[in-house]
Every structure is written in C-alpha cells, then in structure tokens.
C-alpha cells in the first residue's frame, strides 16, 4: 500500500518512536499513538502502530491473519534476511509452532518451576544479604535486578559461568535488531561480535551441564520430537529472550516501589505481595514495549483496510495504560488486579517463560522486602537506550535494613 493510499485510510503520525529522544522519554509517544486512533501510520518506518488494548488483544488472538513467521520486529524476514536465524518458537506459526511450544511448555512446566523455586529463593536471599552488607546506598539496577537473573537462569539452563558477560551484549543486539537499523543497532552489533560467537558455542549440547534445562531440551531431540538443530535454537531462545525482559520488569517494579513509600511498607509488612507487585510493575511499564505481526492476507483492523504483507507494531506499553481498560492507568497501584496486562503477550504466542520470570521476580522482591524496612530514591534513574526494551543502567536507592 502506498503512503498516499494510507493517508486516506487512517491518521498519520510524523514521529519516530525509535529516536534517542523518544526512547529516553517514551510515555508521551505511547500516549500519542494510543489516543490518536485505533491504528496509525508512521511513515518514518513504513509500518502501522496500535496502542489500544482491545485491538492488540485481537491481533494476538488472530494468529492466522497476523503471522509471526515474517518476524516480530520491523523487518519482514520473509523478504529481508535478518541478522540471525529466526526463532523456531517466537517467529513461527502453526502447525510447526505447536510442536516447539509443547516442548518448551514441558521444559518449563509448573512442576519444574516449583522444583527450582527453593534454590532460586535461596540465591535471592544470599544476593540481597551481600548487597545490603555494603551499606545503606545500593544500586538496584546492576546489583540486584541484573545480577540475580543473570545468575539463576543460566545456572538452571546449564550454562558455564565462564563467559556470561557476553549474555547482555548478545541480548541487547537481539532486541535492538527488532527495531530499525539505526545508530543504536549498529552500536550494539559492534559490541556483540564476540558475544554471538559465545552464544552459538553455548547452544551446543556438549556445552551444557548435565541435569540442566538445556539438556532436557535435547532429550526431546533424542526422542525425535524435534531435531538437534531445533534444540540448539530453543536453547538460544532461552539465552536471548529470558534474561533482559525479566531484568527490566524487575527494575520497573523497583522504580515504582522506591517512589511510593506506602507501597513498599505494604510489601515489607507482607512479602507475599511480591507477585502482585511484579504484575502491576509489568502493567505500569512494560519492559518489552513493542512486538510486531505481519498481515498474511487482506483484512480490516481498527477500521483500516490492510493488504497482505503489512507490518503492525503493537505498543504493549501504551495498551497497558489504556484508560479504556484500566482505571487511573498511569498510577502504580499495589491493590490493583493487573490481570489482563499484555507484557507477556497472549494467545498461542504468549510468553512461554512467563511462569519462570514471575517466580524469579517474586523470589527477589520478597527477599529484599523481608530485609529492608524503608527504601527511597538516592539519585536520578539512568535509562538504557534500546529500540525494543525499556530499562535502566542505574536505580540508586537508600535503604533502612531491618
């Protein structure tokens, strides 16, 4: 569809959601996209955007019309080669998608999550004790929100501790590449040259420790449920999609809690609220704010006629603050039932690792809540700049330990 035809069908926004300015102050952009119309055309990238909760829910659930196999970022990977091979689960459609999802659902079953919870909680308690021993001023971003997932998830997967410093540059590139090929992508690409080699090495069966979830994935290859190459790709999915999103979800929850003494007091008094605190944190600020689909056939979305092969970017962060769905959506409310937020997606492509992410966050938040009576900001947060993620390099805080 030409730009001229598009302008007749829907509002046009002359904005760039991926400029440095927008990435450092994204909420006004989210609001503009959501409140302008159900569907808006952004010529800067030649794609559609929607920030409405009900429209995004429709797109997620109609996987036949809005396919994932053309890539979940801006690039149509059926037309343009991506920087890496597509994920066999995230960038795949039925019927083959179902096979890989069943494997991952089994590997990350509720029984498995329960089995590792006690160890994850112990690691969280130990980390919190070490960090608090250094004094009343801590940096919640690197010392807790980054350090904890970067330890426990690779351990559970069976990844060798040596070389884990490559995980964040690799994951950063993975998410930068979902956006445009701008300066942020090129910087990430240069920083991740060694990281990509390391991750490709870690995907191999021989690199994974016995007893870890990575070896469990390869057991499905032994049974011929999937190929050994597919097993390696699923291990890569763990490494590229399971770390940063959890890290930044925890960071946004920390930011909300240190900004609201009453909310922290409630969590300290009842650490079992940690799961609720995390869910509301994900709704309040989605760590992975965008995900895209591609039309597989002509359709109508938000009153706009779309042709086959058009990109629709779902602004999950905007939808999670949609006033049509939430009361006082800009407020972090620990008493809110955040059920229905879209940070993990929904439908057949809903995040398969969401139970693990929830468990990790619950362990860390409850560990800190038990040990800290009061917490407050000790400086200005420092945002990272990423096309497809929202998080922080620094979240300084001052704590009063029990």
Sheet with the most strands, sense and barrel status = 5 strands, mixed
Broad structural category = alpha+beta
Instruction: Count all strands and give the number.
Output: 12
Globally, the shape reads globular
What do the pLDDT scores average to? 94
If you consult CATH, what is the topology?
Cytochrome p450
What are the secondary-structure elements, in order, as H or E? Answer: HHHEEHEHHEHHHHHHHHHEEEEHHEEEE
Helix content: 40-55%
Order of strands in the sheet with most strands: 1-2-8-5-3
Structure commentary:
By secondary structure, this protein is α+β, with helices and mostly antiparallel strands. It has a single domain, classed as Orthogonal Bundle (Cytochrome p450). 49% of the residues lie in helices and 11% in strands. The protein contains 17 helices and twelve strands. Helix 13 (244-259) packs across helix 15 and helix 15 packs across helix 17.
Describe the structure in brief:
It is built from 17 helices and twelve strands.
Write the layout of secondary structure elements.
Layout: H1 3-9, H2 20-24, H3 27-36, E1 40-42, E2 47-50, H4 53-61, E3 66-67, H5 96-107, H6 110-132, E4 137-139, H7 140-157, H8 167-176, H9 183-191, H10 193-202, H11 213-222, H12 228-241, H13 244-259, H14 261-269, H15 274-284, E5 290-295, E6 299-301, E7 304-306, E8 311-315, H16 316-319, H17 354-371, E9 372-377, E10 382-383, E11 392-394, E12 396-401
Parallel strand pairs: 2-8
Antiparallel strand pairs: 1-2, 3-5, 4-12, 5-8, 6-7, 9-12, 10-11
Helix pairs in contact: 6-7, 6-17, 7-13, 8-9, 8-10, 11-12, 13-14, 13-15, 13-17, 14-17, 15-17
């Amino acid at each position: 569809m030409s730009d001229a035809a598009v302008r007749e069908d829907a509002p046009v926004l002359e904005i760039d959601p991926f400029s440095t300015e927008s990435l450092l102050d994204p909420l006004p952009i989210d609001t503009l996209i959501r409140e302008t119309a159900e569907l808006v055309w952004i010529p800067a990238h030649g794609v559609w955007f929607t920030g409405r909760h009900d429209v995004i829910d429709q797109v997620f659930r109609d996987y036949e019309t809005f396919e994932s196999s053309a890539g979940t970022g801006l690039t149509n990977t059926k037309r343009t080669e991506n920087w890496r091979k597509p994920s066999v689960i995230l960038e795949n459609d039925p019927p083959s998608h179902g096979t890989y999802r069943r494997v991952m659902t089994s590997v990350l079953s509720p029984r498995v999550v329960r089995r590792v919870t006690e160890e994850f909680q112990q690691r969280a308690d130990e980390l919190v004790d070490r960090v608090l021993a250094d004094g009343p001023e801590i940096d919640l971003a690197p010392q807790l929100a980054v350090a904890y997932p970067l330890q426990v998830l690779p351990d559970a997967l069976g990844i060798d501790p040596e070389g884990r410093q490559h995980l964040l540059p690799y994951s950063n590139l993975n998410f930068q590449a979902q956006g445009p090929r701008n300066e942020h992508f090129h910087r990430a690409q240069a920083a991740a040259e060694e990281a990509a080699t390391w991750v490709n090495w870690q995907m191999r069966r021989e690199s994974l420790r016995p007893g870890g979830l990575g070896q469990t994935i390869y057991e499905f290859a032994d049974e011929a449920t999937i190929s050994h190459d597919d097993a390696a790709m699923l291990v890569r999915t763990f490494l590229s999609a399971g770390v940063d999103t959890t890290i930044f979800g925890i960071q946004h929850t920390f930011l909300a809690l240190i900004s609201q003494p009453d909310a922290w007091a409630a969590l300290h008094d009842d650490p079992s609220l940690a799961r609720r605190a995390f869910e509301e944190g994900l709704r309040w600020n989605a760590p992975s704010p965008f995900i895209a689909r591609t039309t597989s056939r002509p359709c109508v979305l938000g009153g706009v006629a779309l042709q086959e092969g058009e990109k629709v970017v779902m602004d999950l962060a905007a939808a999670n603050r949609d006033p049509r769905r939430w009361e006082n959506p800009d407020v972090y409310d620990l008493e809110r039932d955040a059920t229905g937020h879209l940070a993990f997606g929904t439908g057949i492509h809903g995040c398969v690792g969401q139970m693990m992410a929830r468990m990790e966050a619950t362990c860390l938040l409850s560990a800190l809540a038990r040990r800290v009576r009061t917490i407050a900001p000790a400086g200005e947060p420092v945002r990272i700049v990423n096309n497809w993620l929202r998080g922080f390099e620094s979240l300084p805080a001052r704590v009063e330990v029990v």
